[in-house]
Amino acid sequence: MLVLGIESSCDETAAAVVEDGIRVLSDVVSSQVAIHARYGGVVPEVASRQHLLQIVPVLEGALAKAEVTLDAIDVVAVTQGPGLMGSLMVGVNTAKAIAYARDLPLVGVHHLEGHTYAAWLGGTDPAVDPGFPLIVLIASGAHTDLIVMRGHGDYEVVGRTRDDAAGEAFDKAGRILGLGYPGGPVVQRTAEGITPSFKLPRAWLGDSLDFSFSGLKTAVLHKAQELGVYPAPEAGADATLVADIAAAFQDAVVDVIATKAIAAVKRYGAKGLVLGGGVSANGPLREACRQAPVPVIIPAPKLCTDNGSMIGAAGYYRFIRGVTHGMALDATPSLALG
Q1: Would you state the pLDDT for residue 303?
Q2: Which of 67, 262, 280, 306 would you label with 168, given CA atoms 20 to 30 Å apart?
Q3: CATH of 127-298, one of 1.20.120.1730, 3.30.450.200, 3.40.50.920, 3.30.420.40
Q4: What is the pLDDT of residues 206-254, one digit of tens each?
C-alpha cells in the first residue's frame, strides 16, 4: 500500500511516498529557515504564502523520486493539526483536492502522532520490538510532551509544557546569545565540548511530568546581561562566555527532559522509549535518554524534524484501523491527540 504523506503545519513544506507504513520511497522537504531567520522566528503569514509557492513542486518531486504517479497512490494522508492555521490549510486543501480528483481515501493525521510514527521508519517495528506500552517523548519548537502509547491509536498525554516548549526555548536562547536562528543546532554547536562553569535553574515541578522552560529562558537573559554579552558584547568581553552560557542552558534542558522521560518509563512500566520532534535531534539529549532502562528508539535526525514520511507512516496505521475522513476534513490548529 502506497501512502502519499503531506506535511505543512509550520514552516516546512513536505511530501513523501511511504510503502506499508515502514518503507520510505521518497521524502522531499522545502525548508523556510533562511526566510524566517531574519525575523528570529516563524512569521505565520509568510509561512503560509511560502507553502502556496512550494506545495506543487514538492509533491511533484516526491512522486518523481519514488518513481510513481498518482495512479499508484492508495491513500492520501495529511497533517490536520495542530499547527499554524494558514500553513495547515495549504496542506489540507491540497490533500483534499488530490483525494477528490483521484477518488482516494483521505486520512487526517495529528502532528504529534506523525512524529511518533517516525520511529516506525527505522527498519524495525516498535510495536513488536520492544512492544507496547511505549513512552513517547515529543520535543519540538511547539511541543514538549510525554505520551503513553498503549497501542496503535491509544494515547495518553501524561506530561506537557506549561509555557515555552523546548525548541522555543532554544530559539530564544540563541537569539539572546546572538547565535542566530534556529537556536537548536547553533546552541548545540556553540556548546560542543564545553563544561559550563555554572548551573542554570531546573524547573522540576515536584513529581509532575510537565515541563517549564520560561524561567530558564529568563535565567539565560539575566546571566547574559550579568556577563556583558547582552544586548551586545562589551568591549573586551571573553568570547568563551557565550559558549559557557549556551552549554549551561543546554545542560539544563537536557537534564530535565531526559530525567522526566526516564521517570515516565518507570512510572508507567513502559517497554521502550521513543523520541520524536526536532529537539530530539540534539546529540546530548539523545545520549542522556539512552540511559533509560529500556530500549530507546530514536529516528535519524532528518526524520526528527517535520517531514512527509512520518505523516505517511501515521496515515497508513490510521487507515488500516479504519480511520478515514471525507471532504469535511478541516485544518484544526489546536487539535487534541486521540
Answers
A1: 96
A2: 262
A3: 3.30.420.40
A4: 999 999 999 999 999 999 999 999 987 655 556 799 999 999 999 999 9
DSSP per-residue codes, 208-227: ---B--HHHHHHHHHHHHHT
CB 308 within 8 A of CB 15: yes
Asked if 190 contacts 243 with a C-beta cutoff of 8 angstroms, the reply is yes
Question: Which of 230, 254, 246 has its CA nearest to residue 195?
Answer: 246
Cell, residue 206? 515536584
Fold type of domain 2-117+302-320: Nucleotidyltransferase; domain 5 (3.30.420)
Residue pLDDT, tens place only, 126-136: 999 999 999 99
Q: Which residue is it, cell 491527540?
A: 337
pLDDT value of residue 237: 58
pTM over 0.90: yes
Using a 10 angstrom Cβ sphere, with 0-12 exposed, 13-18 middle and 19 or more buried, the burial of residue 114 is buried
Give ∠ CA 268-269-271 in degrees, rounded to 5. Answer: 125
